[in-house]
Prior knowledge:
This protein is α+β, with helices and mostly antiparallel strands. It has one domain (69-309): Alpha-Beta Complex (Gamma Fibrinogen, Chain A, domain 1). Helix content is 15%, strand content 21%. Strands 1, 2, 3, 4, 5, 6, 7, 8, 9 and 10 form a ten-stranded mixed sheet that branches. A hairpin with a 7-residue loop joins β3 and β4 (131-137). It is elongated, with a radius of gyration of 47 Å. It starts with 68 loop residues before the first helix and ends in an 8-residue tail after the last strand. Residues 244, 246, 248, 250-251 line the site of calcium ion (CA). Calcium ion binds at residues 244, 246, 248, 250-251.
Amino acid sequence: MGFKGDKGERGYSCLEGKIGKAGSKADKGNRGFSGVTGPVGPKGDKGHNGERGPKGQKGERGIQGSPGVMQIEQLQIQLDNLGVILSSQGCDCSCLHKRSPHLSSGSFTIAFVGIGFIPVYCDMETDGGGWTVFQRRKDGSVDFNRGWNECERGFGNNSGDYWLGLTSLHQLLLVNRANELRIELKDYSGNSAYAKYSSFNVGNSNSKYTLSVSGYSGTAGDSIAASGAAYNANGIKFSTKDQDNDKWSGHCGTSSGGGWWFNVCSRNFLNGSYGRGTRWTRITWYTWKEYSSLAFSEMTYRKKHEPHERD
Length: 311
Ligand SMILES: [Ca+2]
């Protein structure tokens, strides 16, 4: 067997020289200043119009606008026919009669903005019509001996025995400024009479609803101003069983059994107790039947038209 030759030296790998450590990265330099803005260039050519797009869907219906003046008048007439007198100023039966002359007598409700709903009865026939009824006695079904608050507020049913109330009466009279008063009376034998006054007003609560009435005409006589000075009601405050504003040393409201414009006390007491009899505490109108009680009374008012206001 021959001798094994010497092992030769190991040669260098040609890759070894590339395994060196990478050098460190250089620092980033500061950002430079922005350059000066150049001049505005010339305006470009106008572009072509695009093609028309497809038709959109139909929108929802908008909210209805406010009615015009003519529509409000038509609405008022429609409400008149339903028995509701709509007015921002307290239109009453005289205003209603002028606006809707075809309407006959009946119950209506006045929608008085700021005051509320006021039930009334309108007499559209008597003496030219347009009368607002604020008191009625016809069958004794309603007790009229009420306290102050109820006389202010009103009570009864506007198609029967009824008292409108001093607060509403005062407010409604204020709207018209000038008013006339008409009083219808009937006795138990079926006879009728009336008293009319060309000037009528009722003051506010501070005045205790002082009555102002003058200018009599009619068939029943003037029991308000001519039945004896101690019994006249013109310029007199309202009194009730719980409030004495009368001119007597006693208390007419408790002696009489009803609220009224008592002097010392009355010969024109239409709020007296209902029923036959001969006493001043009954429903009386002295210049017609003295102290014999009456079967029916109705107190109404209407706006007084000056001659130039007549239609
Ligand atoms: Ca008194």
